[in-house]
Every structure is written in structure tokens, then in C-alpha cells.
Amino acid sequence: MKTKLYLLYGGKSVEHDVSLKTAVTVLLSIAESRFEVYPIYITRDGLWCSPGQLSKEDLTIERLIARPDSKDAADSIGRILTGVLALPGPKVVMPLLHGPNGEDGTVQGLMELLNIPYVGNGVLSAALTLDKAMSKQILAQADIHQTEYVVCRYEEWKTDEKAILAGVEESIGYPCYVKPASLGSSIGISRCTNRNELQAGILEAFSYDKKLVFEREVAGREIQVAVIGNEKPLASLPGEFIHEHRFFDYESKYFDKQLRMSIPAELPNGLTERIRELAIRAYQAHGCEGLARVDFFLNSDGDLFLNEINALPGFTNFSMYPVMWERTDGTTYAELVEKLIGHAIARHENKQTIRYSK
After folding, report:
1. Concatenated DSSP letters of 256-304
2. 89-116 as b/e: b if 16+ CB within 10 A
3. Which 8-state DSSP code applies to residue 223?
4. Are 208 and 180 in contact (CB under 8 A)?
5. Who's near 319: CB < 8 A, 6+ residues apart?
6. Nearest partner of 296 among 277, 315, 312, judged by Cα
7. Under a CB-based contact definition with an 8 Å cutoff, are residues 305 and 97 in contact?
8. Exposed e or buried b per residue across 234-272, where buried means at least 16 C-beta atoms within 10 angstroms of its C-beta
9. Would you say 40 and 65 are in contact if contact means Cβ atoms under 8 Å apart?
10. Are 136 and 305 in contact (CB under 8 A)?
11. Which residues pair with 211 in a beta bridge?
12. Contact assessment for residue 258 and residue 243, using Cβ atoms and an 8 Å cutoff
């Protein structure tokens, strides 16, 4: 019997369109001899709907963006749970939802309640890695070097804006970055070189999140590493994007046709292995399973700073994560998807041995 593979994509996050691109790429890679694919689309309003079983021949954007039968989120989720996810036979869920309400442990918690295997990180690691402020605390406890940072909540900003501005200038200085704590794809991030830019950046970031992170700029290169696995994770060769942008923002990441990947990244002897080891340390410190991409800064003096860990990295066939694996050990995109599904099923089977009562 074929395994039913449920793809969750779309979502309420501002990364909705990125999620759609990922869903198309994954669907086109699936071995239909082994899997029956059931896309589950989540609208920008949070409604769940499905076009039913879909093959590569049937794939169109119009079919992927199904119309919901309900205008109530709870009712729409209930219809999916009873009509699609309840189909008999072996099954696995692959969440392709970037940002809040998908990458933050919420969907993962639902899958845990349903006792269905799912690809990627669990509830705790998903929540920790998406929240940059919490992740930085984990990195500090693991004694992993990172740049100076400050955290600010919306209520603190409303209470005393001048104190927040002065505190950032004193402890971080310029240039600095202001970021929504729980968002990806560089959305809502501003590079600030003076107080006016800082104020504008704060207001922009607060429109996406109610908790912000301020970071000192590290001038240099951004090095990325792909990590995969559960108890014994593996790290790819490091890679980097070659570009001319001072700030690698959303537009640069997804629309700059001049971007070039350098994999493996050209690094001094010994540094490649050190970066791979640190990536695994960060992965394990967050309790990650399945996959993550770990990003570092390398300055001109050779100092290494861990920037962030991304539990659901970009996953189109042009994204850094799958390409790093292809150039590390020859793993194709389709093989990578199947490896991730295998890790999901193995973790699920391992959990079934846990006793919850005497």
C-alpha cells in the first residue's frame, strides 16, 4: 500500500508565497510509485482546504490554491481532519509552512495530538528556533559565539521609547539590525545607521511581531550549513551566496538573478570542519530533529559568529539547503525529500515505545 503524503502549505504568514513555491517543487519531486500526495492548502485567512489527491500531471497553481468550503477556521480544520487526514493506511505529513502558525510548533502540536508522523522539527525545537530571542539564549547557554544583541517587547517600547533607543545605541551601536523575533526570509528587517533609521525600523518590525531583536552588524561573509537527522545528525559542506548587497533582504534572496552559490565555500584549512561541528552543536542544543539550516557570519579577522538557525529553510530546488546536500554527497532533491520522510517515520515509531500510563 502506498503511503499517503500530506503537504501543508500556504498559511497566514507573510511568507505565504514562498510556501507555495516550496509545495510545487516538493510535489514535482515525489515518487508516485510510493506515495499518494494530498495537498492541504491553508489560506491567508487561516482556512484549511484540499483539492484531493493530486498527481504531477494534474498540478496547476489553480488546483493547489483550493477554495475553502467553510468560512470558519475551526470548521475548515475539522473537515480536513475527518475527510482527508483520516483516510486509512500509512501516512506522513510534510509541513511546508514558513513563519508563524506553521514553523513555530503550532502545526507540529496538532500532528502530535493526532499521532501522525510529520517531517521536520518537533514542537519545542520549532518554537525555539523561530523565536530569535529564545534561540539566542539557547546559544549562549551552549557557549556558542554570537554577536551582541538586545531584545525589546512592544509594551516596553510604548512605555519608554527614548530609553529603548538609548539602550540600543549604548549597547549595540550603529550600524545595527532590527528584526521581528519570529519571522524569516528577512521580512521586516532593517539595517540602521542612525536614530531616525532605527525608529523607522522599529515601527516596521513591530508591524510583523510584538517582540524585536537588535543585533550589532558583523561585516563579512554569511556562511550556511545544512543539517539533517535525528539522534545522529549530519552537517553538509558549508556554502555561501556571492552577491553585492550590503543587506541580503527578501527581494535580494528571491528575485536577484545575479546571485551565485559557492558550495563548498572557500574557507581556510580547518575552518570548514569547525563550522560543521558548530552547526551540529547548535542543532542539538535546540533539540532539532529532521532538518535545519545553520547560518554563520565570518568577519575579516576570521572570527566566527552564529547568526541563526532556521528549522524550515528555503526548500525549492534552487534553495541553498538542498543544493548543499547535492554538492556534499550527491543527494538529489527527490532523495532528500525521501530521507526527510524516513526520519519523520523513524522518530514517530520511536515515540510509540513511550508509556503514558502504568
Report:
1. -TT-EEESS----TTHHHHHHHHHHHHHHHTT--EEEEEEEEEETT--E
2. eebbbbbbbbbbebbbbebbebbeeeeb
3. E
4. yes
5. 313
6. 277
7. no
8. ebbbbbbbeeeeeeebbebbbeeeebebebebebeeeeb
9. no
10. no
11. 153
12. yes
Which amino acid, one-letter code, is at 92? Answer: V
Q: How far apart are CA 34 and CA 118, in angstroms?
A: 17
CA distance 50 to 42: 9
Q: Which pLDDT tens digit goes with each residue over 230-253?
A: 999 999 999 998 865 555 555 555
Give the C-alpha separation, 307 to 298, whole Å.
Answer: 10
Model's pTM, two decimal places? 0.92
What is the total residue count of the chain?
358
The CA angle 332-289-4, to the nearest 5 degrees, is 60
Give the integer Cα–Cα distance in Å for 345 and 311.
18
> Scanning the structure block, which residue is given the C-alpha cell 491553508?
42
Q: Confidence band (pLDDT; 50, 70, 90) for 294?
A: very high
Question: Residue 205 phi/psi, 5° resolution?
Answer: -65, -35
